[in-house]
Structures
1.
Amino acid sequence: MEKENNAGYVITDRLSVGNMEFVIGQSENAPAKFVTWRCNKGEKNYHWGHYSNDRLTALEDLCNRSLDEIHHVRSLQKDVDEKPVRQTEKKSHETER
C-alpha cells in the first residue's frame, strides 16, 4: 500500500467521525514534526492544521478534535430527537408542572 502524503507529511493515523476525518501527519524535515488536519471524509483536502513537535501532543490533539466532532454530531442528533410529540390525553394521576 502506498503511503499517503500531504504538504510533505506522511499520514500515519486517521480517525473518522460522521462525515469528517482527522489525521496525523509526520515529517522528519519540517520545522514542526507532526500535524493534525481535518477533511471531509473521502476527500484529501486537508485543512485547519495544528502543528507540534511531539507525537503524544499530536495524538492528544487528534483525539480531542475527534471528540469535539462527536459532541457536535450528537448535538445535531439530539435536536432531531427532541421534536415535540403531541400527547393525546393526560393521565388523571399526573400533576401539571
2.
Amino acid sequence: MQLRYSFRLYPDGPQCAALARAFGCARVVFNDALRARESARADGLPFPRIGDLSKLLITEAKKTPERAWLGEVSAVVLQQSLRDLESAYSNFFAGLKGARKGPKAGAPRFKSKRDARQSVRFTANARWKITPGGDLSLPKIGDVRVKWSRTLLSTPSTVTVVRDSAGRYFASFVIETDPNADLGRMPETDGRIGIDLGLTHFAILSDGTRIDSPRFLRRAEKRLKKAQQTLSRKEKGSRNRDKARVKVARAHARVADARREFHHQLSTKIIRENQAVAVEDLAVKGLARTRMAKSVHDAGWSAFLAMLEYKAARYGRVFTRIGRFEPTSQVCSNCGVKDGAKSLNIRVWQCRACRVWLDRDVNAAVNIAKAAGLAVTACRARVRPGPVPAQREEAGTHRDGQTTVVGIPWR
C-alpha cells in the first residue's frame, strides 16, 4: 500500500525566494503546454506529444531571452509539471469514456500565481536527499529545515514541496509499506462495531458509546468572523490586504488541522479495538445542500470514513458500507419489526411489537452492524424494557396452587 507522509518545512528567506521561482517556472511551463495543446485542438491537429513539448517549452525555451530564467530551477521540476498536465488530460478523457471511477475530472485549466496551493515535485533524478543532520537537500534551493514528526517506513523516490494558502511549506513523501509489518502493528481482536454518524453526536457506536461532536468550525466562528471583517476593510491590491488574507487562511488552517487530528485519533482507536467495522453510506453532497450544510461540512464525515477505509485495508480489518436506503431508524433491533418512519425530533421510541423502549441512534448503529452481517449485542440499544404480556397458555392457576407468568412459576 502507498501512503503519503507530510512534514512541515521551515525555509529561510533565500530558500523561500528559490521555492517561489520554482513554483513560478513550473506554472509557466504547465500553462505553455496547456496553451499549445488547446491551440492544436482548435486547429484540428493532434495533440503534441510530451517529448515534443519538453524539447520545445523547456530545452529550446531556455535559449530564448523571454524564457532564459527557466534555467534557474531544476529541470526535473519542469519535466514533472508536464507530466502533471499529461495526467490531468488522461483523467479527463478517462472520465468521459467512463473508464475512471468516482466523479468525472474536469478539463485542465490554466494555473495562476494567486492559487491557494503551489507545489513542485522532485524525483530521484534531481538527486535530492535527506542530510545526516535531518535537513532536506533540494537542488538549486539548499538544505531546508524539516520538522520530523515520525520515521519514514521506507526510502521514498520522490518528494513534493507544497506551499498552502496560509504560507506554510510542507514536504510530502509517498512510500510503500510492508503488508506483513502492517498486520503486526495491530493486535488481533474479536470486536465488531456498527457506527451511526450524526451532528449532535459525531458518532454513536452499536455498543452504546457516544462520541460528542467537537464542532471546530462553530467554536472558531467568532475568531474567523473578526479576521474576515479585518480583511474586507483593507484596500484591494495592498500589502496590508495580503497580510490580512494570510491571517484568515491561518485561522481556517487551524480549524482544518484540529478536525483532521480528531478524525485520525478516533479512526485509529476504532480500527485498533475492532476487527470488523460497518458504517452507513451517507449522501453527504445532498445533505450539504440543506439548511444543515455548515454543520455537515464541520463534521467532515467523508474524510473520517475515508480514513476508516484505508486503515482497515492496511491493518487487515473488515470495513463495510451498507446502502443509504436501509431503514436503520425504522426497524427494531430487538425483534426486527419495521415500525415506520419517524421525524427527527423523536429520539426515543417504543416498539409496538415487543414493547421495548429504544434509543434512536444506538438502535440505528445496531441495525447498521446487523445489515453488514456483524453479530453484535443489542442489549445496550434498549432504553428500558416494556411490560411483556403473558401468553394465554402460560398464565393461570394450576392444580398445585402455583401460578405461571411468562413461563416463571411463583407462589
3.
Amino acid sequence: MGDDEVRRIAEDARYRKLLRRRGRMTVALTAAMLVVYFGFILLVALRPALLARPVGDGVTSVGIVAGFGVILFAILLTGIYVRRAARDFDPLVDALRSEGE
C-alpha cells in the first residue's frame, strides 16, 4: 500500500467515522470489564467473609461463583464485540479496501 493510498483512506470520512465508532465501543466495553473486575477484587479485599459463604449446602463458595461470573462476563463482552465488528465494522472496511483496488 503506497503513501497516496494510505493518505486517501485516512482522509475518507467513512474511515474516520469507523475509527470513532470502534473507539467508543472499545472504551465502553473496556470500562464495563474494569468495573466488573475491580468490583470483584474490591469484594475480595473488603468482604472476604461474603465470598467465603457456601452456596446452598454444597462446598462451592460465593467467591467461586462470582469469579466464574467475571469470566463469563469477559466472554460475553468478546461476543458483543465480534458480533458488532462483523455486522457494522467489517463491511465498511471491505468497502474502503475495494475502492483502493
4.
Amino acid sequence: MKIGDLAQRTGLTAHTLRYYERIGLLPRAARDSSGQRDYDASILTWIEFLGRLKTTGMPIRDMLAYARLRARGAVTNEASRRLLQQHRDQVAAHVAELKACLSVLDTKIAGYAADAGQVETDDDARQKRPAQQIRTRQARARGNRR
C-alpha cells in the first residue's frame, strides 16, 4: 500500500509516517520499481498499537525502545513485557488520579445544582418581601458604620 493510502487508513499524515520511519518507530518500507514506499497491510496493526501508546502518554523515547526490542524478536520478550508493564502501571495510576478528579468535579457540579434550586427559592422569597427589607452586603456594611 502506498503512503497516501496508509495515511488515509491510519489518520496520520504522510509526513508523520515518514518521520516515524526515519526515527525507527516504523520499519523501513519496501520500495516499488519507481522507488515509492510500498507498505504491507500488516503495518496497520503496529500503527494502531503505536497510537494507543501515544494516547496513553508513552513518550516517543519509550516507544522507540519498545520498537527496538520488538524488532529483535522473541529474545526480548521479557524486556518488552517489563517496559509495557511499567507503562501500564503509570497509565493505571493516571486513570485513578483522573477518577478522583472526576469525583471532585461531580461533587462540585452537584453542589451547584443544589445551589441553583436554593437560589430560585431565595429569589422567590425576596420578591415577596418589601423592597426596603432587601439589603445588599454593601448597604449592611454602611449601616453598621453609623
